[in-house]
């Protein structure tokens, strides 16, 4: 059973260590403590490998959850550091000085979620989308179907049947 | 060599690098604006409209069409997941070389463009550029449901739904994914259409150039290439 190391528990206000699997745990932390905590985990606790960094849009609660997934090769254990930031004008401190590859994830989050990372290299350049002019497409208020119907013309003369109604019409016409 | 061409074009913007364009209403050739290019690069690129050449008829053209149908050179540009189906075609099991089909590395040498499945907006930009750089007569084979009506990406924010709005298509091959046998059947159908003289995509593109260009510019928002990439 893993526990939070004492030096981390006394320095930061961290939530409980949630064990997802034998080799995977997550830890909730305040967003302002993230760079310092990541540096300490990397330098003193063996979590030297950054697997990925990503965001989750909790639209109902008005927050983004940022997850930094670290890996400890000696103990073969992954640790996800999670923090919450507000959805309006979402800004997070950049961690590209800890891991060089972090700027790629931050650039991706800037483009797909609209989370800004001031000072991160090339964060304002387009990543996978070129010339995107709408709101960032991974935000939950973005309606991808409506956007597709508005932007990309389709072939006329095609129609789709609702499978449930179609089978009812076919099998039990008297029930309708 | 290319540097020399550039310097000559820079020194004299009206240099004869540019082909004669389509005549406008007053007899003067229509000129493309090339608004997406920086001012200093405008002289490097073509600003003439494509001109329709053909369709031609007659015995000689029938012979040429027969020859074209026996020598289909594919542009080696895998635009989507469907490009994976082209690899087995090259191997001994399916062996597309027996039909005279082979891949080429550059659009200037190719006559067939295979749209391999879904086309995102970012890829569409490269598709348009490569298609326009190909020599006529040129043929387009669109494979997979995605090119026909969007397929499984029909509601995606970044994938176009019907490729024929952006470039003319000669043969569609349905399926997700179509098997290599289906591709071979599609290529045979393309050969039959070429021999019948029905594959005039380049002519169609030149005649409806404004319509295609408006459709392309409607989805490609950062247009930073020439309006016609010949």
Beta-strand share of residues of chain B: 5-15%
Give the SSE order of chain A as H and E letters.
Answer: HEEHEEEHHH
Distance between the termini of chain A: 58 Å
Q: How would you describe the shape of chain A?
A: extended
- CATH homologous superfamily descriptor of chain A: NADH:ubiquinone oxidoreductase Nqo5 subunit
The coarse silhouette of chain B is globular
- Which segments of chain A are poorly predicted (pLDDT under 50) over 5 or more consecutive residues? none
Beta-strand content of chain A: 25-35%
Q: Could you name the CATH class of one domain in chain B?
A: Alpha Beta
Radius of gyration of chain A: 22 Å
CATH-defined architecture of chain A: 2-Layer Sandwich
Biggest protein-protein contact in the assembly: A-B, 21 and 23 residues
Structural class of chain B: alpha/beta
Q: The CATH topology of chain A, please? A: Beta Polymerase, domain 2
């Amino acid at each position: 059973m893993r526990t939070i190391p004492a030096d981390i528990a006394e320095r930061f206000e961290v939530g409980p260590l949630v064990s997802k699997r034998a080799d995977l745990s997550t830890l909730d932390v305040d967003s302002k403590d993230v760079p310092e905590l990541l540096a300490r985990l990397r330098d003193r606790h063996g979590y030297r490998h950054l697997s990925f960094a990503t965001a989750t849009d909790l639209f109902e609660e008005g927050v983004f959850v940022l997850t930094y997934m670290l890996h400890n090769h000696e103990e073969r254990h992954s640790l996800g550091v999670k923090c919450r930031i507000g959805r309006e004008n979402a800004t997070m401190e950049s961690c590209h000085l800890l891991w060089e590859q972090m700027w790629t994830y931050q650039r991706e989050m800037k483009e797909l979620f609209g989370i800004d990372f001031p000072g991160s290299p090339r964060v304002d350049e387009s990543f996978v989308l070129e010339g995107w002019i709408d709101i960032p497409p991974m935000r939950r208020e973005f309606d991808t179907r409506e956007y597709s119907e508005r932007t990309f013309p389709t072939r006329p003369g095609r129609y789709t049947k609702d499978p449930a109604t179609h089978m009812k019409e076919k099998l039990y016409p008297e029930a309708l | 060599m290319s540097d020399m061409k550039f310097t000559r074009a820079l020194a004299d913007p009206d240099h004869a690098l540019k082909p004669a364009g389509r005549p406008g209403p007053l007899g003067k050739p229509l000129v493309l604006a090339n608004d997406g290019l920086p001012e200093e690069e405008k002289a490097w690129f073509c600003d003439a409209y494509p001109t329709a050449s053909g369709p031609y008829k007659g015995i000689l053209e029938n012979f040429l069409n027969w020859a074209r149908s026996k020598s289909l050179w594919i542009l080696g540009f895998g635009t989507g997941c469907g490009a994976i189906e082209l690899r087995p075609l090259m191997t001994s099991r399916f062996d597309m070389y027996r039909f005279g089909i082979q891949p080429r590395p550059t659009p200037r040498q190719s006559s067939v463009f295979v749209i391999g499945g879904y086309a995102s907006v970012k890829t569409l930009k490269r598709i348009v550029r490569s298609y326009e750089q190909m020599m006529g007569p040129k043929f387009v084979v669109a494979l997979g449901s995605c090119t026909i009506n969007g397929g499984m990406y029909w509601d995606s924010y970044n994938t176009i739904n019907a490729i024929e709005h952006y470039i003319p298509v000669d043969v569609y091959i349905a399926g997700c994914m179509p098997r290599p046998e289906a591709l071979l059947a599609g290529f045979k159908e393309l050969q039959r259409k070429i021999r019948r003289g029905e594959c005039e995509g380049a002519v169609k593109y030149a005649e409806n150039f404004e319509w295609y260009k408006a459709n392309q510019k409607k989805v490609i928002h950062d247009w930073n290439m020439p309006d016609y990439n010949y």
